[in-house]
Structure formats: C-alpha cells, structure tokens
Amino acid sequence: MRPCLAAAWTAVPGGGPGDMPYGRIVTDYQRIFVVTTQAGAPEVARVRATLASSATVLTAPTAEAKRVVEGLDREAVPDVLLAPVRFPSVDRGHRLDELVRRHAVEDRYRDLVVVADPATVTLLLRVLAPDQLPEAGPVTEVGLPRAPRPVPLGRAAAGGVGLAVVAGLLAALVPIWVLPALVVAAALVLLVVPGRRHLAYALLIATAVAAVFSLFAIAGSSRFPGSW
Asked: Fewest CB within 10 angstroms: 47, 136, 203, 211, which?
C-alpha cells in the first residue's frame, strides 16, 4: 500500500480543480484510503493501525462492505451511491468523486476511508486520482493536497507566558534556560513528524514569547540595574 496523489487542487466547498486560489501553499496531503470489499483481515488491520481516531468511513450499504467496516472499528457513513450497479451511467465516476470530496472538505485534517466493491473503486480512482492506476492490492491510499494546519497563535502565546512563569519558579532548582531548551528540542523533533509541524511552530512561538516575557520581568525587577 503506497500513497498516490490526486489531481492537485485544494478542495473548497462546492469547488473543483479550477478553484485553487493563487498563492495557496500546499505542503501537506489529506489521506484517503480506498478499500475494496475484497480486502482481507490483514489488509483491514493495517489500515486500522494507521488511522487517526477522528477518521471517517464512507461505505457502500452492503454486507461485504459491512464486514470491512467492522474490521476498521470506526463509525461508518453509508451512502447508496457507493452501492454496486450492473450498468453504471457515464457520469458515475464523477459523481463518486464529488461524493468523496464533499466528505473530505468537511474536515481537511482528518483521514477518510471509502469502502466499496472493486468496480466502483476503479471508477472512483479514475477520476479522483487519474494519474494513478489502481494498486494490485485491495487498498489504495490517495493524497488530496491541502494547506498546512494553521498554527494556534493564541494558545502558543498563552503557553509562552506559562512557560516563562514555570521556568522562573524552577530557577532555584535548575537553570532558567533548561525548560525552554527542552521545549525547543521537542519542537525540532515534531518538525520532522508528518502532520505535526503546526505543533512544532506553536512550541517555537511559545519559547520566543517566554524569552520576551522573561526579559521584561527581569528588566522590571529590583535585580535589574536602573529598574523603575
């Protein structure tokens, strides 16, 4: 199971390939796992192990799909459009693509799993990821481009103030720079973890805020020469 990239556009509600705003930075991808009803227990277990707890499962309302969904151990959203049809219409692939993207844009930072029969999966992948042939196995991972997760600036600033206070209280036990250094080290580790860069940036901002807050606290204290 290896990821493939879908048509490069940043999804917006009601949007399409031509709706990607100019200047939008795309450095991350939303994972969409397309699983056929032929998937066995080992394949389903591997998908389940990589899913976040917030993942959504979009499934065909069939007994075969239910077996796969039960193995994923996630709440499922059935949709009749994913049900197998004997004579598919000419626009079925595009309708499947619209269905999947509509669920994807509800939350661009969660995983999405689509469970359907092999024929439906083939039609979906032809439109969702036209440059990628369906993989030999029953699971294909597709990546929809998305902007980076926004950095929580407010919480980062508040955390920086808290970091400065805690570092000051512990100054009698350890040097005041130790705690901020540990936070910076954690941020550097998170920078290389997929999907966690926003947390790394938040930690770095918190450290900078803590440093500024500490400098002002020292400058305003009686220990600082010429303080008021």
From this structure: 136
